[in-house]
Amino acid sequence: MRFASRVATAATILLVAASSAGAELAVLTNGYRYKITAWELLAERGSVEAERIRLTLENGSSVTLPLLRIERIVDDEITDEPTPEPPPEAGFSLDYRPGQTAPAVPYGELFLRIGREHQLNPDLLAALARAESAYDPGAVSSKGARGLLQLMPATAERFGVPARELYDPARNVLAAARYLTWLRRRFEDDLPRVLAGYNAGEGAVDAHDGVPPYRETVTFIGRVYGYLGL
What we know:
By secondary structure, this protein is of the alpha+beta class.
């Protein structure tokens, strides 16, 4: 879920992003995976449901799918860098702490409110928003992720938030909080795995029995740790 700048909509049909992917995997909502070398995100103004993404496959052919069928596009570049681990003395908890105050960042009160409602540390929401979008609610990545916490439309809908609402900060953070709560249960509050699941998908974590050795994911985890002061 890489951060990209806000997208201007000036035509009925427009090319939002085109990227040379190198080696990446497009993961569909049904679990099927395509190995791809590039993608193009196509959008119809005002209609998230009509958005399409064109994937260029390894053999040079292409397939165009509704964006809502894409769970995520993950980096398939393997790295030898070790997975960052928070120091034992850091004592960071994923839980909301009674009496916790709002993070001193944009949308801090929103992170606090939704964190409290979901018993989730608002500092984690704030760090993820900084890493994902630099607190820009209108951010759109080249892969189709959007909003403060850069959720793919399919992921948001999976957790009860329509894709068309992802530019609403409150709805975006709500979907992210629900996803993080689900990841916490799945990975038993293991922070590296929770962050890896958020970035690369829980399927990638399962496949590698831990943090997948994707350069993008390892870098993402390290960046979030930095924002958390770990």
